[in-house]
Design goal:
Length: about 80
């Protein structure tokens, strides 16, 4: 166990950040799955900006790498473009 007051605080804040990051990342993964399973163009067009924004926020917070966010956004945009 940590002995310094600052390290105890750091452990507490790291735990809070980890919990928040896990929640946001899981919510984004669920939204990506929902977008991938969308069958209509209209539904996918509504979801794409929201999912793209979520991915950008994850990349900004360093939860995922910025290149991964860009790659995912690109693949999702291609998928939406192929829908009719």
């Amino acid at each position: 166990m940590a002995n310094h007051k600052s390290s105890i605080k750091r452990i507490r804040s790291n735990d809070a950040k980890r919990t928040e990051n896990r929640y946001v990342a899981k919510t984004t993964r669920t939204a990506v799955k929902k977008l991938r399973s969308a069958t209509t163009k209209k539904e996918a067009d509504e979801l794409l900006p929201k999912v793209s924004s979520m991915l950008d926020k994850l990349a900004k917070r360093n939860v995922i790498h910025k290149n991964k966010a860009g790659n995912m956004k690109s693949k999702l945009a291609k998928k939406v473009a192929t829908l009719k």
